[in-house]
Description:
Elements: H1 7-23, H2 38-53, H3 72-84, H4 92-105, H5 108-119, E1 125-128, E2 144-148, E3 151-159, E4 169-175, E5 186-192, E6 198-205, E7 208-209, E8 217-218, E9 221-234, E10 238-239, H6 245-256, H7 260-279, E11 281-282, E12 285-286, H8 291-319, H9 326-350, H10 367-372, H11 384-395
Parallel strand pairs: 1-4
Antiparallel strand pairs: 2-3, 3-9, 4-5, 5-10, 6-9, 7-8, 11-12
Amino acid sequence: xxxxxxxxxxxxxxxxxxxxxxxxxxxxxxxxxxxxxxxxxxxxxxxxxxxxxxxxxxxxxxxxxxxxxxxxxxxxxxxxxxxxxxxxxxxxxxxxxxxxxxxxxxxxxxxxxxxxxxxxxxxxxxxxxxxxxxxxxxxxxxxxxxxxxxxxxxxxxxxxxxxxxxxxxxxxxxxxxxxxxxxxxxxxxxxxxxxxxxxxxxxxxxxxxxxxxxxxxxxxxxxxxxxxxxxxxxxxxxxxxxxxxxxxxxxxxxxxxxxxxxxxxxxxxxxxxxxxxxxxxxxxxxxxxxxxxxxxxxxxxxxxxxxxxxxxxxxxxxxxxxxxxxxxxxxxxxxxxxxxxxxxxxxxxxxxxxxxxxxxxxxxxxxxxxxxxxxxxxxxxxxxxxxxxxxxxxxxxxxx
Length: 400
């Protein structure tokens, strides 16, 4: 594995960084992705289109689909900068999950139909995997797709469908053979959200978000549940082979578990914490000069670097044409444990003022307090026990 960058890659990073500093309005910096208001959504989508015009949305996609033909490494460099500087990506599901999966499993007609609008910033996608009775155990999904001539009729429900209320398409997992073992008999479809029979309802979450203001708040974070009532979809919208959808889903989840952008956002949190410790004095002494605080910061920096390298290992494997399985789960598992651990360590440094939110007295504008509040993200992309099972089975070869 090679984690150093050549001169062209360094120049690409600097070029995108310059673009962000010049073109990104301050109103959208650290936009949280919660689509909390029409105004914040409009600003984010406008800047996403500006990135598309400059060729920054999907640099690793083939040129015939609107990309720049770069490698996974270059795409990861851009994603890392986006994560660090809080660049909004409304269509993150399409660009990071559905799009790459379509390139592997989709038909040529599907690629030409769906990929170029993503690279132009014209559409938003959602992912319809999780159900009320099928979360970490996704293979237990019960949403049915029954063939009717040249179409399939879909009935069922999805939950925690991020961005469904602003999306144009849902990348939907269904059961097409109810008699097959649960990991078989699954098929994926592309379903327009405006198709008759599709209903999107809000699912308000107790969590934290910045709302595009840079100040974390509690609550009012929207997710969605989606209902499918006799939704008719052409058979041509099936992605991959019939009843082999589990393998398509596994590919998508491996992309989801390799998010270097999220790690870059955590690095920024740490950098801001260090800066705060340098500038803040307690009893006439800078926080950074207190031995206990220095020890905590050193521990955070060490674990953060481990997480960073785990993510880049996954990206390196993808750049070599291999699909990471246990490696992606290792990174995701470490990230889950790091997130809550970091928040506890940081709150210990901030002291009594640390829990403040929405106050001028809140340290670091409440960012750390917002991270301290647990939400559904700790279970996203599979519960920690699921990640451990994948590592044990696929990584270590242990029996089930």
